[in-house]
Amino acid sequence: MKVAIVQFKPRKGCYTENLAAATQAFAQMGAQGLPDLVVLPEAALTGYFLEGAVYELAQSAQHCARDLAAAWRQANGAAPVELVCGFYENDAGTYYNSALYLTIEPDAYRIVHVHRKLFLPTYGVFDEDRFLSRGRRVAAFETPFGRAAILLCEDLWHSIVPTMAALKGARLLIVPSAAPGRGIDASCAGELTSVTRWRELLSLTAGEHGVFIIYAGLVGFEGGKGFTGSSSVVDPHGVALVRADALDACIVRAQLDLREIDAARANLPLLGDLNAVLCDLFLDDELPLPHCRCDASSR
Description:
Elements: E1 2-7, H1 15-28, E2 37-39, H2 54-57, H3 61-76, E3 81-91, E4 94-105, E5 108-116, E6 141-143, E7 146-150, H4 160-167, E8 172-177, E9 184-185, E10 191-192, H5 193-209, E11 212-217, E12 219-222, E13 225-228, E14 232-234, E15 240-243, E16 250-255, H6 259-267, H7 270-282
Parallel strand pairs: 1-2, 2-3, 7-8, 8-11
Antiparallel strand pairs: 1-16, 3-4, 4-5, 6-7, 9-10, 11-14, 12-13, 14-15
Helix pairs in contact: 1-3
């Protein structure tokens, strides 16, 4: 499976210009052979820090899918591709920070899944919850490469979310992100603390659940706040196959051997162990959960 991450530098508030820049990035891919899957970051086509302008720039999922399919075909003709892109979604007047998974075929395109961000950061430089509604579930869905799930940025930081995705059968986690840089990590030659934390988080999550993680980071500056890129692909053993730097727009490529998922899970069967005890864990009446019954025969 061949993957290309477009580490994207959008112009804030300029949907048409950003779509044209994405088209140019798609066209560059042909020189080295077209990928099977292309991933763009969170809010790639508008920029991230929109505040109230999100209501003017948000698009329906169908509108965004149509534009992305047209951009891909303009760049690469009838070549098929699977494509993931983060966008601000307007669903009949309700607004979300979303990402769509799109299948583009020679004569058609189809939205396979839309993920709506669960955790809307509203602290420090973040203000998402003031302007957006949150998603309410994480789903695993079928792709040509096996079951996958999309998590948006902070979703990955709450360990229960990738765990739920893996329990639902996801073997591939796709993580579009717009992560501003924060802090200096003196132990890593002055690397940004946020970059260090993301690298550790991706490695630990992939290794615990035996999944590939494709992380696509935004770059550039908006209102003096800089995004840290660092797009990467991490294998099911927790090893980074490729990693971009934190500053520049670029295309990051990797080739995934999906058989490594089974090998990693056989070597470290943590997900299987969790499946075995999951029902007992959720029967714990000290957890702040709605009352539910669990059929003991399913254990």
